[in-house]
């Protein structure tokens, strides 16, 4: 015989299992289209991106899936004259970087994938900038398009002060004298032969 607490617990577990089965049932019978997934997910959650919208800002430049890829190509077609585009993306050569059978998964991990076309800075420099050494090219570069040259996510000092503390840097003598200069006037953004990556 179950006590009162055990009966309530068993009843709660049964309710949870029924709810879970209901959600799985909805997903199973709603099909695989992004529109049907949107309808099911938006019923349960707020803020689910509408697949019919052409705004890709919610994707953070990580285009995955057939429908999203079509949206990305439409976005590319509407890109303004000052938009810089990664060549494989511009040429619609998605398979140069992405595995065609796996929803946007890369064919290799970064930075090996980047080094297929771009210079391997680990072989060139003794000291590497943190993101370069960690294989995180996307901390500074967009992978598809950017309003900035070299597909940078930001320009000038804003790119560097996104990670580096501007106040601490401004206390150093060379930075006080050159506070309005672009950081790359003195520092190599990828690596160098000294710890501060100065040129």
Write the layout of secondary structure elements.
Layout: H1 4-29, H2 34-44, H3 66-77, E1 84-85, H4 87-90, H5 112-115, H6 121-124, E2 127-128, H7 130-133, E3 145-146, H8 156-161, H9 166-169, H10 173-177, E4 191-192
Antiparallel strand pairs: 1-3, 2-4
Task: Walk me through the structure.
The chain has 199 residues and is mainly alpha-helical. It contains 10 helices and 4 strands; from the N terminus they run αααβαααβαβαααβ. The strands form 2 sheets. A two-stranded antiparallel sheet has the order 1-3. Strands 2-4 form a two-stranded antiparallel sheet. Mean pLDDT is 78; it is low at 54-79.
Q: What is the gist of this entry?
A:
The protein is mainly α. It contains ten helices and four strands. It is 40% helix and 4% strand.
């Amino acid at each position: 015989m179950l006590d009162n607490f055990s009966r309530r617990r068993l009843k709660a577990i049964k309710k949870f299992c029924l709810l879970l089965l209901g959600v799985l049932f909805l997903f199973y019978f709603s099909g695989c289209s992004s529109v049907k997934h949107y309808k099911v997910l938006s019923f349960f959650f707020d803020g689910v991106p509408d697949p019919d919208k052409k705004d890709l800002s919610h994707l953070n430049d990580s285009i995955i899936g057939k429908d999203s890829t079509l949206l990305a190509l439409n976005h590319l077609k509407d890109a303004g004259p000052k938009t810089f585009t990664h060549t494989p993306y511009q040429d619609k050569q998605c398979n140069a970087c992405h595995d065609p059978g796996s929803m946007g998964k890369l064919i290799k991990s970064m930075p090996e994938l980047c080094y297929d076309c771009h210079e391997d800075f680990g072989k060139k420099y003794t000291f590497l900038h943190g993101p370069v050494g960690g294989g995180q090219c996307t901390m500074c570069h967009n992978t598809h398009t950017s309003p900035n040259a070299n597909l940078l996510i930001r320009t000038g000092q804003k790119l560097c002060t996104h990670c580096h503390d501007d106040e601490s840097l401004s206390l150093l003598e060379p930075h006080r004298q050159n506070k309005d200069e672009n950081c790359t006037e003195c520092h190599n953004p990828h690596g160098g032969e000294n710890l501060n990556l100065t040129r």
